[in-house]
Amino acid sequence: MDWMNYTLFTFAGDNPVLLIDLITSLLGLTCVFLAGRNSKYNFWVGYFYTTALFFMFWNKNLYASLLLQPVSLAINILGHWRWTHPHEDERSAEDSSALKVSMLSWPERALSVLSVFIIAGVWGWLLDTLFPADPHPYLDSCVTVLILVAQFLSAQKKWDCWIAWLLVNITQIALHISVGHVFMPIVCALYLANGIWSLISWKKTYSRGE
């Protein structure tokens, strides 16, 4: 698709800024901004963001991240439902139609960390074997699995999701720089700042039972 490679301008020397990079950046920033402020409307933006990410990763041959997007879409739909259809004991003290913020137990956190290491290792090996064009199969897979965990925790409105997102942002900065992205490292740095703010904000929301 030629439109993905449309160059808006060059940045920092010979690095091109593509149209798909700009679209993805704007959608991503809007999505995480709304999520950090506990807004259910982040899911509507998330549908478009997932689509844009699919095309962007396709353009850069990052296959693990590309294959993640249909799964991300499914988790986004799940999260949209969960945030707006809580069970009786999960309702926010502020809005009974909204899901309240909760936390993982320590055994659940340990299981999440173990799952990331095991799945990322296996996926990285498969990716290296099946898709040799991927320039960084293990780093790509690590980012992929971390995103899946962070998205699933976000869909359940778990405070711990922001810890996972901080790890995702740090890893993604390295990944995007390695393949020559210009906008996305900047966006990921903004994600990182938003994640720190959201970690603190959601902790206060959790304490209020909201």
Write the layout of secondary structure elements.
Elements: E1 7-11, E2 15-18, H1 19-36, H2 42-60, H3 63-84, H4 106-130, H5 137-155, H6 161-178, H7 183-207
Mean pLDDT: 85
Strand order across the biggest sheet? Answer: 1-2
N-C termini distance: 45 Å
**Rg, alpha carbons:** 17 Å
Helix content: 55-70%
Class by alpha and beta content: mainly alpha
Tally of helical runs: 7
Shape: globular
Largest sheet: 2 strands, antiparallel
H/E element order: EEHHHHHHH
Total strand segments: 2
Give the low-pLDDT segments: none
Give the percentage of residues in beta strands. under 5%
Counting structural domains, the number is 1
Which labels suit this protein?
4% strand; globular; 7 helices; 2 strands; two-stranded antiparallel sheet; 70% helix; 210 residues; mainly alpha
